[in-house]
């Protein structure tokens, strides 16, 4: 897949923006705060329905405006697709595909993007929510309908938790809250699907992560991915990350474990006014050299794991998608890496159909990716690419 043209209206610092992109490497150069990452963020939104920098959509809309528009022309082989999303400061977002209204969760069917960014270090060093977000965005890209499943799960979770808080305030005991059973059924059905998909994702990423880590770090430190599941007794949000047997069980077995765990925790959930079991409490445990990356890995090892996760994601999408390679976006990554990792990453990514690199310092970009330069200054885009073969 190729992004041929990007148009923005009232997105971040851009009143309007027009950006033409080429096949192969494209470099966006500009000082910090000028808007180059905003361009990358807009492209990523079309693929993941979210930002890699903020958890809500409101900050993406320019100050004083009610909505923003991201519009992109995508090339899938010989076929072009025009995708558009309107981000509303209030209310639901709207999407259009080739000019016709569409469901928002249809966009990832057409936009396939993998982002590398400094924030990726939080995937390996941050709290469990960072790893859950990474996994769920990948689920949406692999299977776009998972966007609806995840949204429905979050809605049911909010309603169930509100009921628990109300019961706590009224002094209701577990056996006196029969209405909770209805929400348990919905939570189990949706949550089991998410858990199963996450387990399958970890299994599918294991081989590509091992290969990518070795290529980036120049050493085999035996990277591993395992889910710590609250339905099996772990509670990463409380500091317990014993993953147990994290094989990809049939969904029916996961649902049975989920329901049993909810029953066992019901009294404690009412006491605390929280839903304590489900995919919203799980964590993706990352290890190198048989030790957790978080707390044990060096800075270089942590970066190698983060980059390996992204490269493995790109390879998985590349293998599975009939649309070809995903677009790779390397957002201010090279400034964070030593010279050896810069060169390794450049060599590993240069062969993709389209790569978009952002950098504050042009000299940071390794030669294999130093093509088609566009300069960004205070929200103004100037194209000085010249001869792409030069």
Automatic annotation (TrEMBL):
Its main location: cytoplasm. Residues 3-360 form the RecF/RecN/SMC N-terminal domain. It comes from Microbacterium commune. Keywords: ATP-binding, Cytoplasm, DNA damage, DNA repair, DNA replication, DNA-binding, Nucleotide-binding, SOS response. It is found in: Cytoplasm. This is DNA replication and repair protein RecF. Belongs to the RecF family. The RecF protein is involved in DNA metabolism; it is required for DNA replication and normal SOS inducibility. RecF binds preferentially to single-stranded, linear DNA. It also seems to bind ATP. Gene3D superfamilies: P-loop containing nucleotide triphosphate hydrolases, RecF/RecN/SMC, N-terminal domain. ATP binds at residues 30-37. HAMAP family: RecF. The keyword Cytoplasm applies. NCBIfam families: recf (TIGR00611). The lineage of its organism: Bacteria, Bacillati, Actinomycetota, Actinomycetes, Micrococcales.
